[in-house]
Every structure is written in structure tokens, then in C-alpha cells.
Amino acid sequence: MKLAMIGLGRMGYNMAARLARGGHEVVAYNRTFEKARELADAEKGVTPVETLEDTVAELDTPRVIWMMLPAGEVVDENVDALLPMLSKGDLLVDGGNSWYKDAPLRAAQAGERGVGFMDVGTSGGVWGLTEGYCLMAGGTRDDFRLLEPALRVLAPERGYIHCGGPGAGHFVKMVHNGIEYGMMQAYAEGFAIMEDSEYAAGIDYSTLSETWNHGSVIRSWLLELARDAFREDPGLDSIKGWVEDSGEGRWTVQQAVESGTPAPVITLSLMERFRSRRENAFADRVLAALRHAFGGHAVKR
Q1: Pick from 1, 3, 9: which is nearest to 96 by CA?
Q2: pLDDT in tens, 26-56
Q3: Which of 48, 125, 212, 247 is least enclosed, having the fewest CB within 10 Å?
């Protein structure tokens, strides 16, 4: 099939390349044209374009346009710009990390013109080009069928799913990321406990990570990545313990509050990310002052 990819960042660039390598024709648009031209030079089957108008003009109906853009206003701006140029039966796809409650609104806006809209949660990161992407799609069944040839190439075997109506794809991806937060926090705490104990003194964490991935119930791809990180820098001395969050962990916790669903692990893992960004945190100084005040416990000046 022939489709367009709008947004050639870390994810969009590799996804467009994987589609092209899988036999699809890709119309590539990026805010900076040089990126689209770079992709076309590297991959057969890619047509670089300089404007959204050119993007639409290069496609045959029904047009399929996949957006890999930052969540929020940028997606809305592109939807607003594209819809007047599209025809009944065309399909817009939001594959970024958008808030799931935006998808039904965008689907309704597109539906007024007879244009389909799908929200596709995309997981795979920088490894997706070679390993494939796990794809969680929301939208109508007909739109899913139209998009499925592209999903089949982007994903590894059994790596994509139709989750339900508009918003379902991004909702499931949001929960996926919340689970990811909890898993990573558990690994981090476990290694920290060993680092602080004499019993594990001198152990090679890279070798341990590899060992845990053979027969252990906690084996995972994350442990493979931990193995590689420890192999490159055994004490992780080159990295500062500052952990950002993309926003989906926050949305997961907000949803847990809205639905009254207990989610202490995911919630605390998000709080730990906030904590990582504070050196000599004020809250810790308050705690030290209170311990000193009521018990005379020593404080470090």
C-alpha cells in the first residue's frame, strides 16, 4: 500500500524506513525537509515532500496518513490543516503518545467530513526498526482493516491488536507505559539493594542480568538492556540519576484516581521519578529537621 508518514523523529523515521523495507510506498513529510530527503536517500520506495499539500497530492484514495508527532497542540494543528484536503474514506492515524481522551474528539471531527481516524499506541523505541513495533489500535473495525497491511509490516508476528473504538488504542498504550514504570522501578530498587549490601560486593551486574534471563521468572527484555548498560559502564558512573517521564505515567495514575483503582506500584514509581530530579530536596530537609527537633537526632550540615 501507499501511505504517508508525517513526523520523522526517532520513531517516525524508523517506522517509515521499516514500511519501505516491507514493500510499502511511503510519502515522507517532516517540518524540516532535509530529514525527509535523508530518508529517501537511504531507503527505496520513499518520496520526500515539502508541504502537507504535497503529501496529500502524492497519495491515491483512500489516502492513509500516519502522524508521529508530539502529543497535544501539534497533533491538533496537523489534523486541522489536513482535514479540508482529505476526502470521504481517507484515514488519519495518530501513532504518538497522545492523551487517550483526545482521540474520540478528533475522530468525531474527522467523521464530520467522512474521514476515518485511528489512535495507534506504538511501543518499540529505537529498536523498532529491526525488532518491530507493538501496536495497539483504536478506531472502527473498517478503518483497522484498511490500516492492517501497514500494521502487519510494522509489527513482529502477533505484535498488533485492535483494542476497540476511538481512544482505546492510546488508553491501552497508556496503561502499558504505566506498567513499564513499575517494572523498571522494581529492577532499579533490586540492584540498589545489592549495591548497598556487603553480600553482593563485587558481583558483576551484567553477568547477573544475563543469568536472570535464563529460567528466572523475572526474565525480560529490560534485563537484556540492563545487561548491556552494565557491560558498557559497570557502575553507571557516566549517568546522572535524573529520570524524566513522558506523561503517560501521569495519565495512568490520573485514570487510577478517576476509576478508584488501587495502583500503588505505578503511582510510587512515578513519584520516584519526580524525586530523582531533586538534589538536597526540601522535603528531605524538613524530615531531617523534624527528627532533630523531636528526638535530638543528628543532622548533616
Answers
A1: 9
A2: 999 999 999 999 999 999 999 999 999 999 9
A3: 125
What is the arithmetic mean of pLDDT over 184-208? 93
From 35, 58, 173, 248, active-site residue: 173
260: left (phi over 0), alpha (psi -120 to 50) or beta: left
Q: Give residue 99's Cα distance to chain centre.
A: 12
Residue from 25, 131, 148, 180 carrying the catalytic annotation: 180
To the query of whether residue 180 is one of the catalytic residues in this protein, the response is yes
Report the first-to-last Cα separation within the chain, whole angstroms: 66
pLDDT at residue 293 above 90?
Answer: no
| Amino acid, res. 156 | P
Residues 67, 6 contacting (CB under 8 angstroms): yes
Decide if 118 contacts 138 (C-beta within 8 A). yes
Q: Could you give the CA distance from residue 259 to residue 274 in angstroms, rounded to a whole number?
A: 23
Percent of the chain clearing pLDDT 90 (strictly above): 84
pTM for the predicted model, two decimal places = 0.91
CA 118 to CA 116: how far, in whole Å?
Answer: 7
Contact 206, 234 (CB under 8 A): yes
Q: Do 155 and 95 touch, CB atoms closer than 8 A?
A: no
Residue 267, C-alpha cell as written in the block: 503511582
Report which DSSP code applies to 86: -
Burial letters for 150-167: b for 16+ Cβ neighbours within 10 Å, e otherwise? bbebbbeeebbbbbbebb
